[in-house]
Amino acid sequence: MKHEISAGAIIYFEDGEKRTYLLLKSKKGHWDFTKGHVEGKETRIEAARREIMEEAGFMKKDLEFIDGFHKEITYTFSSRAIAGEDISKVVTYYLASVRNQEVFLSDEHDEYGWYPYKDALHALKFKNARALLIAAEEFLNKNTSA
User: Fold this and answer.
1) Per the confidence metrics, is the pTM higher than 0.85?
2) Which residues lie across from 93 on neighbouring strands?
3) What's the total number of domains in the chain?
4) Phi, psi values for residue 119, rounded to 5°
5) Which residues, other chains included, contact 113 with Cβ-Cβ below 8 Å and sequence gap of 6+?
6) Which is nearest to 102 in space by CA: 35, 22, 31, 15?
7) Residue 21: is it exposed, middle or buried by C-beta count within 10 angstroms (0-12/13-18/19+)?
8) Which of 4, 34, 66, 119 could form a disulfide with 115 if both were Cys (CB 3.0 to 4.6 A apart)?
9) Strands (E), 16-146
């Protein structure tokens, strides 16, 4: 079995009391967060930052990673590109806020959207992605309601 390590981010924007989450629609038709392979000697957070830039166009100055939040998910899938070989993937997700909602979408995705929490939760197809969003929302609510 092949093993892959990736990193990504749950990106959100707050305008007063309104919080929205960025979801990207893949060419396969499902909504998800930014993520991609860790390359070379990158740390996972460096890979997450690069993926944010590549997939959504946010530069380092446009985003802030939120201290204290990172979640790891693991899943296995079968690769069509490698003749059905099973791949075990570990993805570390961070939480990042952005200063604006201007997205420059890569060619890896068909669409993007900024969704309030409940709408984002409904749009996410995979159970582990929904669990990540729930954890992010709970973290933000707990740490911003002091």
Assistant:
1) yes
2) 8, 71
3) 1
4) -70, -40
5) 22, 23, 25, 31, 123
6) 22
7) buried
8) 119
9) 18-26, 31-32, 34-37, 63-79, 85-98, 109-116
- List the domain range (segments joined by +) for residue 89: 2-144
Tokens linked to 51: 């993926």
CA distances from 77 to 59, 85, 97 (A): 31, 8, 30
Please, what is the end-to-end C-alpha distance for the chain in angstroms?
46
Rounded Cα distance between 30 and 72, Å, is 20
CATH of the domain at 93: 3.90.79.10
Strand 63-79, strand 109-116: pairing: unpaired
Amino acid at 72: E
Instruction: Summarize pLDDT for 22-56 with one digit per residue, the tens.
Output: 999 998 889 999 999 999 999 999 999 999 999 99
